Amino acid sequence: MRNAFHDQLDAVFDDLATICGQVETAVTDATAALFDADADKAERVISADVEIDHARERVEDNALALLSLQAPVAGDLRVVVAALRMVSELERMGDLSVHVAKIARLRTPNRAVPDQAHATISQMAQVAEAMVRRAGEVIRTRDVDAAAELRASDEDMDRLRRTSFTELLAQDWQAGVEAAVDVALLGRYYERIADHAVSVANRVVFVVTGEYPATV
Amino acid sequence: MRNAFHDQLDAVFDDLATICGQVETAVTDATAALFDADADKAERVISADVEIDHARERVEDNALALLSLQAPVAGDLRVVVAALRMVSELERMGDLSVHVAKIARLRTPNRAVPDQAHATISQMAQVAEAMVRRAGEVIRTRDVDAAAELRASDEDMDRLRRTSFTELLAQDWQAGVEAAVDVALLGRYYERIADHAVSVANRVVFVVTGEYPATV
Q: How far is Cα B18 from Cα B22, in angstroms, rounded to an integer?
Protein backbone atom coordinates (compact mmCIF):
# COMPACT_ATOMS: atom_id res chain seq x y z
CA MET A 1 0.00 0.00 0.00
CA ARG A 2 2.80 2.43 0.87
CA ASN A 3 4.46 2.00 -2.53
CA ALA A 4 1.22 2.44 -4.42
CA PHE A 5 0.60 5.63 -2.45
CA HIS A 6 4.05 7.04 -3.21
CA ASP A 7 3.91 6.10 -6.89
CA GLN A 8 0.58 7.87 -7.23
CA LEU A 9 1.90 10.83 -5.25
CA ASP A 10 4.88 11.06 -7.64
CA ALA A 11 2.42 11.16 -10.54
CA VAL A 12 0.58 14.05 -8.85
CA PHE A 13 3.88 15.93 -8.45
CA ASP A 14 4.78 15.28 -12.11
CA ASP A 15 1.47 16.89 -13.04
CA LEU A 16 2.20 19.84 -10.74
CA ALA A 17 5.57 20.34 -12.46
CA THR A 18 3.86 20.28 -15.86
CA ILE A 19 1.31 22.88 -14.75
CA CYS A 20 4.12 25.03 -13.35
CA GLY A 21 5.68 24.89 -16.86
CA GLN A 22 2.38 26.10 -18.35
CA VAL A 23 2.32 28.94 -15.80
CA GLU A 24 5.91 29.85 -16.70
CA THR A 25 4.87 30.13 -20.37
CA ALA A 26 1.88 32.26 -19.36
CA VAL A 27 4.04 34.67 -17.34
CA THR A 28 6.70 34.91 -20.07
CA ASP A 29 4.17 35.44 -22.86
CA ALA A 30 2.12 37.94 -20.85
CA THR A 31 5.30 39.93 -20.19
CA ALA A 32 6.26 39.81 -23.88
CA ALA A 33 2.75 40.94 -24.83
CA LEU A 34 3.08 43.79 -22.33
CA PHE A 35 6.44 45.13 -23.51
CA ASP A 36 5.89 44.48 -27.23
CA ALA A 37 2.28 45.77 -27.11
CA ASP A 38 1.39 42.50 -28.87
CA ALA A 39 -2.39 42.01 -28.79
CA ASP A 40 -2.26 38.57 -30.44
CA LYS A 41 0.15 37.25 -27.84
CA ALA A 42 -1.98 38.74 -25.04
CA GLU A 43 -5.01 37.00 -26.54
CA ARG A 44 -3.18 33.66 -26.60
CA VAL A 45 -2.28 33.96 -22.88
CA ILE A 46 -5.91 34.74 -22.06
CA SER A 47 -7.33 31.84 -24.09
CA ALA A 48 -4.66 29.34 -22.95
CA ASP A 49 -5.62 29.82 -19.29
CA VAL A 50 -8.48 27.34 -19.64
CA GLU A 51 -5.87 24.60 -20.14
CA ILE A 52 -4.32 25.42 -16.77
CA ASP A 53 -7.79 25.30 -15.21
CA HIS A 54 -8.44 21.87 -16.73
CA ALA A 55 -5.04 20.59 -15.61
CA ARG A 56 -5.89 21.77 -12.08
CA GLU A 57 -9.11 19.77 -12.15
CA ARG A 58 -7.22 16.64 -13.22
CA VAL A 59 -4.69 17.01 -10.40
CA GLU A 60 -7.49 17.55 -7.90
CA ASP A 61 -9.31 14.43 -9.11
CA ASN A 62 -6.10 12.39 -8.85
CA ALA A 63 -5.29 13.73 -5.39
CA LEU A 64 -8.81 12.99 -4.15
CA ALA A 65 -8.66 9.49 -5.66
CA LEU A 66 -5.41 9.03 -3.78
CA LEU A 67 -7.04 10.09 -0.51
CA SER A 68 -10.02 7.87 -1.16
CA LEU A 69 -8.26 4.71 -2.30
CA GLN A 70 -5.18 4.80 -0.10
CA ALA A 71 -6.68 6.47 3.01
CA PRO A 72 -3.27 7.86 4.01
CA VAL A 73 -2.54 8.57 7.69
CA ALA A 74 -1.68 11.94 9.23
CA GLY A 75 1.72 12.71 7.62
CA ASP A 76 0.86 11.48 4.13
CA LEU A 77 -2.52 13.14 4.39
CA ARG A 78 -0.87 16.52 4.90
CA VAL A 79 1.29 15.88 1.83
CA VAL A 80 -1.78 15.33 -0.33
CA VAL A 81 -3.42 18.44 1.12
CA ALA A 82 -0.20 20.37 0.35
CA ALA A 83 -0.44 19.15 -3.27
CA LEU A 84 -4.06 20.38 -3.45
CA ARG A 85 -2.96 23.78 -2.18
CA MET A 86 -0.08 23.94 -4.66
CA VAL A 87 -2.35 23.33 -7.60
CA SER A 88 -4.71 26.10 -6.40
CA GLU A 89 -1.76 28.48 -6.19
CA LEU A 90 -0.49 27.52 -9.65
CA GLU A 91 -3.94 28.17 -11.08
CA ARG A 92 -3.99 31.57 -9.37
CA MET A 93 -0.57 32.39 -10.89
CA GLY A 94 -2.10 31.62 -14.29
CA ASP A 95 -5.00 33.99 -13.51
CA LEU A 96 -2.54 36.74 -12.55
CA SER A 97 -0.72 36.26 -15.88
CA VAL A 98 -4.08 36.74 -17.57
CA HIS A 99 -4.52 40.02 -15.66
CA VAL A 100 -1.13 41.19 -17.01
CA ALA A 101 -2.13 40.14 -20.54
CA LYS A 102 -5.45 42.00 -20.23
CA ILE A 103 -3.68 45.26 -19.35
CA ALA A 104 -1.38 44.70 -22.37
CA ARG A 105 -4.40 44.11 -24.61
CA LEU A 106 -6.29 47.13 -23.25
CA ARG A 107 -3.49 49.55 -24.16
CA THR A 108 -2.43 48.25 -27.59
CA PRO A 109 -1.23 49.60 -29.97
CA ASN A 110 0.42 51.60 -27.17
CA ARG A 111 2.60 50.07 -24.47
CA ALA A 112 0.96 50.08 -21.04
CA VAL A 113 4.31 50.64 -19.28
CA PRO A 114 5.78 54.10 -19.89
CA ASP A 115 9.54 54.55 -20.39
CA GLN A 116 9.91 55.96 -16.89
CA ALA A 117 8.69 52.69 -15.32
CA HIS A 118 10.13 50.32 -17.92
CA ALA A 119 13.32 49.28 -16.13
CA THR A 120 11.66 48.47 -12.81
CA ILE A 121 8.58 46.68 -14.15
CA SER A 122 10.80 44.77 -16.58
CA GLN A 123 12.97 43.63 -13.68
CA MET A 124 9.88 42.64 -11.67
CA ALA A 125 8.71 40.56 -14.63
CA GLN A 126 12.13 38.90 -14.94
CA VAL A 127 12.29 38.12 -11.22
CA ALA A 128 8.74 36.70 -11.32
CA GLU A 129 9.53 34.54 -14.38
CA ALA A 130 12.76 33.26 -12.77
CA MET A 131 10.86 32.47 -9.56
CA VAL A 132 8.18 30.50 -11.41
CA ARG A 133 10.89 28.56 -13.29
CA ARG A 134 12.69 27.89 -10.01
CA ALA A 135 9.43 26.77 -8.35
CA GLY A 136 9.06 24.22 -11.18
CA GLU A 137 12.59 22.94 -10.49
CA VAL A 138 11.82 22.69 -6.78
CA ILE A 139 8.72 20.62 -7.55
CA ARG A 140 10.73 18.33 -9.89
CA THR A 141 13.88 17.94 -7.77
CA ARG A 142 12.42 18.43 -4.24
CA ASP A 143 15.56 20.49 -3.61
CA VAL A 144 15.06 22.22 -0.26
CA ASP A 145 18.04 24.58 -0.78
CA ALA A 146 16.58 25.84 -4.06
CA ALA A 147 13.41 26.71 -2.15
CA ALA A 148 15.47 28.89 0.20
CA GLU A 149 16.92 30.76 -2.82
CA LEU A 150 13.38 31.43 -3.94
CA ARG A 151 12.63 33.11 -0.65
CA ALA A 152 15.69 35.34 -1.21
CA SER A 153 14.41 36.29 -4.68
CA ASP A 154 11.16 37.36 -3.07
CA GLU A 155 13.10 40.01 -1.14
CA ASP A 156 14.34 41.35 -4.50
CA MET A 157 10.73 41.51 -5.59
CA ASP A 158 9.70 43.43 -2.45
CA ARG A 159 12.55 45.90 -3.07
CA LEU A 160 11.49 46.38 -6.72
CA ARG A 161 7.90 46.93 -5.63
CA ARG A 162 9.02 49.73 -3.30
CA THR A 163 11.18 51.23 -6.09
CA SER A 164 8.19 51.16 -8.43
CA PHE A 165 6.01 53.04 -5.93
CA THR A 166 8.76 55.60 -5.40
CA GLU A 167 9.00 56.15 -9.15
CA LEU A 168 5.35 56.57 -9.83
CA LEU A 169 4.76 58.83 -6.83
CA ALA A 170 7.77 61.05 -7.58
CA GLN A 171 7.30 64.69 -8.55
CA ASP A 172 8.85 64.04 -11.96
CA TRP A 173 6.34 61.33 -12.97
CA GLN A 174 5.34 62.48 -16.46
CA ALA A 175 3.25 59.59 -17.70
CA GLY A 176 -0.07 60.55 -16.13
CA VAL A 177 -2.67 58.85 -13.99
CA GLU A 178 -3.67 56.05 -16.36
CA ALA A 179 -0.09 54.78 -16.72
CA ALA A 180 0.42 55.09 -12.95
CA VAL A 181 -2.64 52.95 -12.28
CA ASP A 182 -1.49 50.35 -14.84
CA VAL A 183 2.00 50.25 -13.33
CA ALA A 184 0.64 49.96 -9.77
CA LEU A 185 -1.61 47.04 -10.75
CA LEU A 186 1.08 45.33 -12.85
CA GLY A 187 3.44 45.60 -9.87
CA ARG A 188 0.78 44.06 -7.68
CA TYR A 189 0.25 41.13 -10.13
CA TYR A 190 3.96 40.31 -10.46
CA GLU A 191 4.36 40.59 -6.68
CA ARG A 192 1.50 38.12 -6.16
CA ILE A 193 2.95 35.70 -8.74
CA ALA A 194 6.21 35.82 -6.76
CA ASP A 195 4.38 35.30 -3.44
CA HIS A 196 2.66 32.21 -4.81
CA ALA A 197 5.96 30.86 -6.22
CA VAL A 198 7.49 31.11 -2.73
CA SER A 199 4.45 29.47 -1.22
CA VAL A 200 4.59 26.57 -3.72
CA ALA A 201 8.30 26.06 -2.93
CA ASN A 202 7.61 26.17 0.82
CA ARG A 203 5.00 23.46 0.41
CA VAL A 204 7.60 21.28 -1.33
CA VAL A 205 9.88 21.85 1.70
CA PHE A 206 7.00 20.68 3.88
CA VAL A 207 6.50 17.59 1.74
CA VAL A 208 10.21 16.72 2.01
CA THR A 209 10.94 17.69 5.64
CA GLY A 210 7.51 17.54 7.30
CA GLU A 211 7.80 21.20 8.34
CA TYR A 212 7.16 24.56 6.75
CA PRO A 213 10.15 26.94 6.64
CA ALA A 214 10.20 29.33 9.61
CA THR A 215 9.72 32.38 7.36
CA VAL A 216 6.22 31.36 6.20
CA MET B 1 -19.28 6.39 11.94
CA ARG B 2 -21.48 8.47 9.62
CA ASN B 3 -22.96 10.42 12.52
CA ALA B 4 -19.57 11.03 14.12
CA PHE B 5 -18.32 12.32 10.76
CA HIS B 6 -21.25 14.69 10.32
CA ASP B 7 -21.07 15.96 13.91
CA GLN B 8 -17.39 16.76 13.46
CA LEU B 9 -18.09 18.32 10.09
CA ASP B 10 -20.74 20.55 11.69
CA ALA B 11 -18.12 21.64 14.22
CA VAL B 12 -15.75 22.55 11.36
CA PHE B 13 -18.51 24.62 9.74
CA ASP B 14 -19.26 26.35 13.06
CA ASP B 15 -15.58 27.35 13.18
CA LEU B 16 -15.74 28.58 9.57
CA ALA B 17 -18.75 30.76 10.46
CA THR B 18 -16.85 32.20 13.44
CA ILE B 19 -13.83 33.02 11.27
CA CYS B 20 -16.11 34.63 8.70
CA GLY B 21 -17.39 36.84 11.55
CA GLN B 22 -13.81 37.84 12.37
CA VAL B 23 -13.24 38.66 8.68
CA GLU B 24 -16.42 40.76 8.65
CA THR B 25 -15.06 42.77 11.60
CA ALA B 26 -11.72 43.16 9.80
CA VAL B 27 -13.38 44.48 6.63
CA THR B 28 -15.68 46.83 8.56
CA ASP B 29 -12.89 48.19 10.77
CA ALA B 30 -10.45 48.56 7.86
CA THR B 31 -13.09 50.55 5.99
CA ALA B 32 -13.78 52.74 9.03
CA ALA B 33 -10.02 53.31 9.44
CA LEU B 34 -9.85 54.27 5.78
CA PHE B 35 -12.67 56.79 5.75
CA ASP B 36 -12.01 58.23 9.24
CA ALA B 37 -8.21 58.29 8.68
CA ASP B 38 -8.02 56.46 12.02
CA ALA B 39 -4.48 55.10 12.49
CA ASP B 40 -5.32 53.31 15.77
CA LYS B 41 -8.17 51.41 14.17
CA ALA B 42 -5.97 50.52 11.19
CA GLU B 43 -3.34 49.22 13.62
CA ARG B 44 -5.92 47.06 15.39
CA VAL B 45 -7.02 45.45 12.08
CA ILE B 46 -3.38 44.71 11.24
CA SER B 47 -2.56 43.20 14.64
CA ALA B 48 -5.83 41.23 14.90
CA ASP B 49 -5.07 39.35 11.67
CA VAL B 50 -2.88 36.87 13.55
CA GLU B 51 -6.04 35.62 15.31
CA ILE B 52 -7.60 34.77 11.94
CA ASP B 53 -4.39 32.97 10.97
CA HIS B 54 -4.49 30.93 14.19
CA ALA B 55 -8.16 30.12 13.73
CA ARG B 56 -7.35 28.89 10.22
CA GLU B 57 -4.71 26.54 11.63
CA ARG B 58 -7.22 25.13 14.13
CA VAL B 59 -9.79 24.47 11.40
CA GLU B 60 -7.14 22.81 9.25
CA ASP B 61 -6.06 20.57 12.11
CA ASN B 62 -9.67 19.59 12.81
CA ALA B 63 -10.39 18.93 9.13
CA LEU B 64 -7.27 16.79 8.78
CA ALA B 65 -8.15 14.89 11.97
CA LEU B 66 -11.55 14.26 10.43
CA LEU B 67 -9.95 12.90 7.25
CA SER B 68 -7.56 10.78 9.27
CA LEU B 69 -9.96 9.33 11.83
CA GLN B 70 -13.07 8.92 9.72
CA ALA B 71 -11.45 8.16 6.32
CA PRO B 72 -14.49 9.52 4.49
CA VAL B 73 -15.28 8.23 1.01
CA ALA B 74 -15.42 10.24 -2.22
CA GLY B 75 -18.40 12.55 -1.58
CA ASP B 76 -17.62 13.32 2.06
CA LEU B 77 -13.96 13.69 1.18
CA ARG B 78 -14.78 16.48 -1.25
CA VAL B 79 -16.79 18.21 1.47
CA VAL B 80 -13.78 18.23 3.80
CA VAL B 81 -11.55 19.49 0.98
CA ALA B 82 -14.13 22.23 0.30
CA ALA B 83 -13.92 23.24 3.98
CA LEU B 84 -10.12 23.42 3.73
CA ARG B 85 -10.43 25.68 0.69
CA MET B 86 -12.99 27.88 2.43
CA VAL B 87 -10.72 28.50 5.39
CA SER B 88 -7.86 29.45 3.03
CA GLU B 89 -10.14 31.95 1.30
CA LEU B 90 -11.34 33.42 4.59
CA GLU B 91 -7.73 33.88 5.69
CA ARG B 92 -6.99 35.62 2.38
CA MET B 93 -9.97 37.96 2.91
CA GLY B 94 -8.42 38.86 6.27
CA ASP B 95 -5.10 39.60 4.51
CA LEU B 96 -6.88 41.86 2.01
CA SER B 97 -8.51 43.77 4.89
CA VAL B 98 -5.00 44.27 6.28
CA HIS B 99 -3.93 45.72 2.91
CA VAL B 100 -6.82 48.22 3.11
CA ALA B 101 -5.83 49.09 6.70
CA LYS B 102 -2.20 49.61 5.65
CA ILE B 103 -3.18 52.13 2.98
CA ALA B 104 -5.32 53.90 5.61
CA ARG B 105 -2.36 53.95 8.03
CA LEU B 106 0.09 55.14 5.37
CA ARG B 107 -1.96 58.25 4.57
CA THR B 108 -3.04 59.39 8.06
CA PRO B 109 -3.68 62.07 9.17
CA ASN B 110 -5.01 62.51 5.64
CA ARG B 111 -7.69 60.35 4.10
CA ALA B 112 -6.37 58.03 1.36
CA VAL B 113 -9.59 58.30 -0.66
CA PRO B 114 -10.13 61.77 -2.19
CA ASP B 115 -13.61 63.31 -2.31
CA GLN B 116 -13.88 62.59 -6.02
CA ALA B 117 -13.62 58.82 -5.39
CA HIS B 118 -15.40 58.71 -2.04
CA ALA B 119 -18.87 57.68 -3.18
CA THR B 120 -17.72 54.78 -5.37
CA ILE B 121 -15.08 53.36 -3.02
CA SER B 122 -17.50 53.73 -0.11
CA GLN B 123 -20.09 51.75 -2.06
CA MET B 124 -17.51 49.09 -2.93
CA ALA B 125 -16.67 48.80 0.77
CA GLN B 126 -20.37 48.49 1.69
CA VAL B 127 -20.98 45.83 -0.96
CA ALA B 128 -17.90 43.90 0.17
CA GLU B 129 -18.96 44.07 3.85
CA ALA B 130 -22.49 42.94 3.00
CA MET B 131 -21.11 40.07 0.92
CA VAL B 132 -18.85 38.87 3.75
CA ARG B 133 -21.79 39.04 6.18
CA ARG B 134 -23.96 37.13 3.71
CA ALA B 135 -21.21 34.52 3.20
CA GLY B 136 -21.25 33.98 6.98
CA GLU B 137 -25.03 33.46 6.86
CA VAL B 138 -24.63 31.00 3.99
CA ILE B 139 -22.09 29.02 6.03
CA ARG B 140 -24.41 28.98 9.07
CA THR B 141 -27.68 28.27 7.30
CA ARG B 142 -26.43 26.35 4.22
CA ASP B 143 -29.02 28.40 2.32
CA VAL B 144 -28.39 27.79 -1.38
CA ASP B 145 -30.66 30.67 -2.47
CA ALA B 146 -28.67 33.14 -0.36
CA ALA B 147 -25.54 31.99 -2.19
CA ALA B 148 -27.20 32.92 -5.49
CA GLU B 149 -27.91 36.43 -4.15
CA LEU B 150 -24.23 36.72 -3.33
CA ARG B 151 -23.34 36.06 -6.94
CA ALA B 152 -25.74 38.86 -7.95
CA SER B 153 -24.00 41.25 -5.51
CA ASP B 154 -20.72 40.41 -7.20
CA GLU B 155 -22.10 41.93 -10.40
CA ASP B 156 -22.70 45.17 -8.46
CA MET B 157 -19.09 45.02 -7.38
CA ASP B 158 -17.88 44.57 -10.97
CA ARG B 159 -19.97 47.55 -12.05
CA LEU B 160 -18.56 49.71 -9.23
CA ARG B 161 -15.03 48.66 -10.18
CA ARG B 162 -15.62 49.87 -13.73
CA THR B 163 -17.11 53.14 -12.42
CA SER B 164 -14.06 53.64 -10.22
CA PHE B 165 -11.69 53.23 -13.19
CA THR B 166 -13.78 55.63 -15.26
CA GLU B 167 -13.58 58.21 -12.46
CA LEU B 168 -9.89 58.04 -11.86
CA LEU B 169 -9.00 58.02 -15.54
CA ALA B 170 -11.33 60.94 -16.37
CA GLN B 171 -9.90 64.25 -17.57
CA ASP B 172 -11.29 66.02 -14.52
CA TRP B 173 -9.44 63.81 -11.98
CA GLN B 174 -7.89 66.42 -9.67
CA ALA B 175 -6.49 64.29 -6.87
CA GLY B 176 -3.18 63.38 -8.46
CA VAL B 177 -1.24 60.19 -9.07
CA GLU B 178 -0.79 59.04 -5.48
CA ALA B 179 -4.52 59.11 -4.75
CA ALA B 180 -5.23 57.38 -8.08
CA VAL B 181 -2.85 54.55 -7.20
CA ASP B 182 -4.40 54.19 -3.73
CA VAL B 183 -7.91 54.14 -5.19
CA ALA B 184 -6.94 51.58 -7.87
CA LEU B 185 -5.41 49.26 -5.27
CA LEU B 186 -8.27 49.72 -2.79
CA GLY B 187 -10.71 48.87 -5.57
CA ARG B 188 -8.69 45.75 -6.31
CA TYR B 189 -8.70 44.68 -2.64
CA TYR B 190 -12.46 45.12 -2.19
CA GLU B 191 -13.07 43.33 -5.50
CA ARG B 192 -10.94 40.38 -4.35
CA ILE B 193 -12.74 40.24 -0.96
CA ALA B 194 -16.01 40.03 -2.92
CA ASP B 195 -14.62 37.33 -5.24
CA HIS B 196 -13.60 35.22 -2.25
CA ALA B 197 -17.01 35.72 -0.58
CA VAL B 198 -18.70 34.36 -3.72
CA SER B 199 -16.28 31.48 -3.82
CA VAL B 200 -16.93 30.59 -0.15
CA ALA B 201 -20.69 30.65 -0.79
CA ASN B 202 -20.28 28.50 -3.91
CA ARG B 203 -18.40 25.93 -1.86
CA VAL B 204 -21.31 25.80 0.59
CA VAL B 205 -23.62 25.13 -2.40
CA PHE B 206 -21.29 22.29 -3.33
CA VAL B 207 -21.39 20.90 0.20
CA VAL B 208 -25.22 20.96 0.19
CA THR B 209 -25.96 19.90 -3.40
CA GLY B 210 -22.82 18.03 -4.46
CA GLU B 211 -22.29 20.41 -7.38
CA TYR B 212 -20.75 23.82 -7.88
CA PRO B 213 -23.04 26.49 -9.32
CA ALA B 214 -22.71 26.75 -13.12
CA THR B 215 -21.31 30.29 -12.98
CA VAL B 216 -18.10 29.33 -11.11
A: 6
